[in-house]
Design brief:
The complex is a heterodimer of chains A (105) and B (200). Chain A is α+β, with helices and mostly antiparallel strands and 105 residues long. Chain A has one domain: Arc Repressor Mutant, subunit A, CATH 1.10.10.10. In chain A, 59% of the residues lie in helices and 20% in strands. Chain A is built from six helices and three strands. Chain A has a three-stranded antiparallel beta sheet with strand order 1-3-2. In chain A, a hairpin with a 2-residue loop joins β2 and β3. Chain B has 200 residues and is mainly alpha-helical. Chain B has one domain. Chain B has seven helices and one strand. The relative contact order of chain B is 0.17. Classes of the chains: A alpha+beta (105), B mainly alpha (200). β1 of chain A pairs antiparallel with β1 of chain B.
């Protein structure tokens, strides 16, 4: 399968990072990439994902080491602050590079 | 449209950053502040008492309250990257330079120099519009440019027709800007309902 794909279109499905490729996760990473850090509510309002859906994707990204979730207090209120890690940034950049190459841009 | 981004967006990261940053201006707080300040400046012509100037503080307090108790609670909290901080520093330095030029003009007029009407009007108008344009550009807050044109317009009317008509124009424009700001606040509240204090 891998060789057939590579021979036909010069790329393999394995070249694509599926963790980043999922649209909601890509959207989350795009936001976190341009921010220093953002809280859960900010990411939610910007993506319009439901709380459960966003939480699930954040957990997956955290397990992959792409984002770091930190609970902190701003004033007296607890905030779930989310930050993209170096690994996450690298994966995001590589994904963009791969996709640009595949679609020939 | 509820979201800033859509799955199908062209992922121009700079554009995304600008969109995220400008989402904080959807609350119309700054518009109200500018509107209140313009109205206050105009009121000073009709009510010659120093306390009127303190009304302008109402605009600043309004921004503080709206941001702290409404915007962040509904929109969420984000810290932007160092490139945004650099933009802010550049903006601050340019505005500082514009203020120094204004101060020089003031000192020159206090020392007895009387620049021609055309020169004075041109310099003041250029300073106001350039300052507002710079803020609009660096803050990705394009309404500020329009408000700059409004303020410049009222200054030009003051210079050409005197304080009375100028103040009336300033008050009218300030009131319009305030109404626009309040309208944006209404839209913001509808678009981002309260999370009820449950942030996670």
């Amino acid at each position: 399968m891998k060789n057939v794909s590579r021979n036909a279109v010069n790329w393999s499905v394995d070249d694509i990072d599926r963790m980043v490729h999922e649209p909601a996760r890509y959207m989350i990473l795009s936001i976190l990439y341009v921010l220093d850090t953002g809280d859960f509510l900010f990411i939610q309002t910007q993506t319009a994902l439901t709380k459960g859906n966003l939480s699930s994707h954040i957990s997956k990204l955290e397990e992959a080491g792409y984002v770091k979730v930190v609970k902190e207090f701003i004033g007296k209120r607890p905030h779930t602050m989310i930050r993209i890690t170096k690994t996450g940034k690298k994966a995001f950049e590589e994904y963009r590079g791969t996709m640009s190459r595949i679609i020939g841009r | 449209m509820h979201v800033v981004m859509k799955m199908s967006d062209n992922r121009d990261l700079k554009r995304i950053e600008a969109k995220l940053f400008s989402s904080y201006f959807q609350d119309g707080a700054w518009d109200v502040m500018i509107g209140i300040m313009m109205v206050t400046m105009a009121l000073r012509t009709f009510i010659d008492h120093w306390t009127v100037s303190f009304l302008a503080l109402g605009g600043v307090i309004y921004v503080f309250i709206i941001r702290k108790y409404l915007t962040v609670k509904r929109l969420g909290y984000a810290r932007f990257s160092s490139s945004r901080k650099k933009k802010r520093v550049t903006m601050f330095l340019i505005i500082l330079a514009a203020n120094i030029v204004t101060l020089c003009l003031l000192i020159a007029s206090l020392l007895g120099a009387d620049p021609s009407f055309a020169l004075r009007t041109t310099v003041i108008a250029a300073l106001v519009i350039s300052t507002f344009s710079i803020v609009a550009y660096y803050m990705d807050y394009w309404r500020f440019f329009i408000w700059g044109i409004f303020l410049t317009g009222s200054i030009l009317v003051t210079e050409m027709f005197g304080l009375g008509p100028g103040s009336m124009v300033s008050m009218t424009m300030g009131a319009c800007i305030t109404i626009v700001g309040l309208y944006f606040l209404y839209i913001f509240i509808k678009k981002y309902p309260s999370s009820g204090g449950d942030r996670d």
